[in-house]
Structure formats: structure tokens, C-alpha cells
Write a structure and sequence with these properties.
Layout: E1 19-25, H1 29-39, H2 47-54, H3 62-75, E2 78-85, H4 91-100, E3 105-110, H5 118-126, E4 131-136, H6 138-141, H7 148-158, E5 164-167, H8 175-180, H9 197-202, E6 208-210, H10 218-227, E7 231-234, H11 250-261, E8 266-267, H12 281-293, H13 298-312
Parallel strand pairs: 1-2, 2-3, 3-4, 4-5, 5-6, 6-7, 7-8
Helix pairs in contact: 1-2, 3-4, 10-11
């Protein structure tokens, strides 16, 4: 097993910062098998054929994939990461990865709260060491974040100290589904951050993480975050949603987010996901360059890049 890298390792030409990644997808064997069955591929392990079709590497086992992520993160100077299960039912494999590297990984898992037994699954998952985050994708599963089932889920999660809700808002695109020709009938209307306000106000001590700066609902996200101090934002991905706001740049996004939320509610993330690409260092380089260009003090850069993550998810 690998150990965490030293302070500032892997960052050259910029400031020597510790890095934690608040957004990495753990594409486990189950993830690929689920896609393979949706594609109608035969066999007990159709995920192997899925990876061949898209030109990716099959993860093997959850433990092997956990080791590979730990090595990849170490190579780029990343200390800890939030590993996100990306299909319902993937929590068991994520839990195995977290158990293998408990000092490196925090576990997160996708949940469809409209499905029978959802709260039972949450209770099991959050009882596993290091499993701390329940991830909701309203546009994917067809419900609003103000749905009573979400409110009931939030009540359960808020009762488990050290946990958080992750709610994907805005435009949702899953590239591998497009490559495989699978339908992506995601409705962005369910991803309006304004729908988060009720649950955020009801549970002010429950952190609610919104990725990608709201993925196209940036203004609405800022409005909610301004009134709900428990709403935090991850900076992950290329943030291609900016194309919907002509003239908007990553520098403008960071500047406005810092002005409204301050540095203590931003979580650095990359949206890394598959091998052989591995950890997405280009996202790091772009974001750190923006922070430098804005003249963000180093103490605030450190909070964004690692400190806020450690405060939300302290090592146990």
C-alpha cells in the first residue's frame, strides 16, 4: 500500500500546496457491468467488453483499483480524495477501496432516493468505516431536490455525524454513455440549485456539496449559498458549462465564487475517473493558475486545495 505524499509534492512552477481531490469517480467493476447490461452485452461480466469498446482499462477488482488510484494520486502529490461510486449499488465496492486505504480515501456513493430500500442502503453504507457522503443526481433519476423523499434522506444523513450530502445540479453529461450509444435522458430542470434551499435551511449543520460550480446554474448556486452557509462548492472538471454564459471564464467564476462564498467553502476537485488517463493534472494546473492570477493569498489557496476537505472529513 502507498502512503500520503509529503507537503507540496507533485506541484511544480506554482505554489507548494497540499492537495486533496474532492471529486474522483471510482469506476469499479460493477460500474462497467451495469453499463454492459444496459448495452445488452452477454455474459456474467459484460464490463470487460465495455472497457474494450471505449478503449479504457478494466479495473480488475475493487482492491486493485484502489491501489492504482492511491499510486496515481501519490505520483501527482495528492494526499486524499473523495471516491464517488457512480451507479446505484456501487457502495460496497467503494467501501472496500476505502477500507484498503483509510488514510487516503473518503467514500461517497450514488443513491436514487426514489427507489425502494434507499434508506436501508444509506444506513448500511454510512456504517462502513470511511463512507461519509451520499450523492444525489436529480436530473438522472427524475426528482427535485425538494422532493419529500430527499428531505427524509437528509434527516437520516444529518443524524450521522461527519457525513455530507452531494447534490449534482445543472447540466449532466456522462461521456461513456454517449460513446456506448446509451440514452442519457437527463432533465436539467431537476438540477436547479434553488431547489436545495429548503433542505439546506432545515439542516444547517449538514454540509451540502454542489459540484462544478452548479454546472450552468452558477447564479442560482450563488444565491442559495449566500443564504445557506452549509452549502459548499467543488471546483471540479473542465467546467464546460461556461459555454452557456458567453464571455464567462474560469477566472470570472472563481472570482465571483470567492466574493460570495469566501475561500472556506470551495473544495478543489478534478472529476478524474478512468485509466489509462488517471488523475487529471491539467485541471489542477488550470485552477491553480487562476488562483495565482487572482492574487489569492496562499493561506486561502491552501484552504481551497486541501484544508477545507480535511475540515469536512477529518481523519478518524
Amino acid at each position: 500500500m502507498t502512503t500520503a505524499p509529503p507537503l507540496g509534492a507533485g506541484v511544480t512552477g506554482l505554489v507548494p500546496l497540499r492537495l486533496n481531490d474532492a471529486h474522483c469517480h471510482f469506476f469499479s467493476p460493477r460500474f462497467f457491468d451495469v453499463l454492459g447490461r444496459q448495452k445488452g452485452l452477454p455474459g456474467d461480466a459484460p464490463g470487460v467488453e465495455v472497457t474494450r469498446l471505449v478503449g479504457w482499462e478494466h479495473p480488475g477488482t475493487a482492491e486493485a483499483l484502489a491501489d492504482r488510484w492511491a499510486d496515481a494520486l501519490s505520483a501527482d502529490g495528492v494526499g486524499r480524495a473523495l471516491l464517488i461510486g457512480s451507479v446505484p449499488g456501487e457502495e460496497e465496492q467503494v467501501a472496500r477501496a476505502v477500507a484498503r486505504h483509510p488514510d487516503r480515501f473518503v467514500g461517497a456513493f450514488m443513491l436514487d432516493p426514489t427507489q425502494e430500500g434507499a434508506l436501508t442502503r444509506v444506513a448500511w453504507a454510512l456504517a462502513q468505516p470511511g463512507m461519509r457522503v451520499v450523492c444525489l443526481f436529480p436530473a438522472m433519476h427524475g426528482y427535485a431536490p425538494s422532493d419529500p423523499r430527499v428531505l427524509g434522506l437528509a434527516e437520516q444523513v444529518a443524524g450521522s455525524p461527519g457525513t455530507a450530502l452531494f447534490i449534482h445540479c445543472g447540466v449532466l453529461s456522462v461521456g461513456i454513455r454517449k460513446t456506448l450509444g446509451l440514452p442519457s435522458a437527463f432533465e436539467a430542470r431537476y438540477g436547479n440549485p434553488l431547489e436545495l434551499q429548503g433542505v439546506a435551511l432545515r439542516h444547517p449543520s449538514l454540509p451540502i456539496i454542489v459540484p462544478h460550480f452548479g454546472a450552468g446554474f452558477f447564479r442560482e448556486l450563488l444565491m442559495v449559498a449566500d443564504t445557506c452557509p452549509n452549502v459548499v462548492v467543488d471546483t471540479s472538471s473542465s467546467n464546460a458549462w461556461m459555454k452557456y454564459s458567453p464571455g464567462l471564464t474560469l477566472r470570472h467564476v472563481f472570482a465571483q465564487a470567492l466574493a460570495v462564498l469566501g475561500p472556506d467553502r470551495l473544495l478543489f476537485g478534478t472529476d478524474s475517473s478512468f485509466f489509462p488517463r488517471g488523475w487529471h493534472a491539467a485541471v489542477r494546473d488550470a485552477q491553480l493558475a487562476v488562483l495565482e492570477a487572482l492574487g489569492v493569498p496562499q493561506v486561502d489557496q491552501q484552504a481551497i486545495c486541501a484544508g477545507n476537505f480535511d475540515r469536512l472529513f477529518p481523519r478518524r
